[in-house]
Amino acid sequence: MNRPEDLPRFTFAERVVHWLVGVTFVVLLLTGLAFSYPSLFWLTAILGGGPAARALHPWIGVLFSAGIAAMFVLWVRDMGLGAEDRRWLRAISHYARHDRANVPPTGKYNGGQKLFFWTQSVLGVLFLVSGVPLWVPGELGRGLLSAARLLHFVAALGGGLFLILHVYLGTVAYPGTARGMLYGTVTRAWARLHHPRWAEEDVAVAEDTER
Which H or E element spans position 150? Predict the structure, then answer.
């Protein structure tokens, strides 16, 4: 699927970490829903049934947390929010309407993607902080255990909503976006449309290398 004229966007390591976080979160979300709602208990079948799901859920949570930590290390350097990002966020309604003329040009990541990164990082911490006590409930009093369950549920709800938004934006709303995480490259047309400054910089670097 990659062509010589395409622009490299994500490394193999970045894609592996992204899919590790995505797949483990979906499994955790589905099994968590199964534990919370008896009518959805059939979802535990994805891990071999109720007992297996209860045993594996926290260990998959460890994998998810490791993925979040790796993702933070890989991308944090590019995720600082500056004046350019604030201008982009003020124009987000234009971006949502595909009104490109009124959207400030961005680099490799726009303000929305950077906010998503930081929100995801915070949710990852909340999952860990609330999930560890639930793994060893006998070590907590009833009040702290109830607080941990509530925090875990709220974090899961927020994470689930962000997952839906993330998938929608990467597929339906802005076709061609998911290609970067599938193959590691994007078309130059997509890059110029969504991240024009990054596209110009990447092309300039490639031309200098060729010389």
Answer: helix 142-168
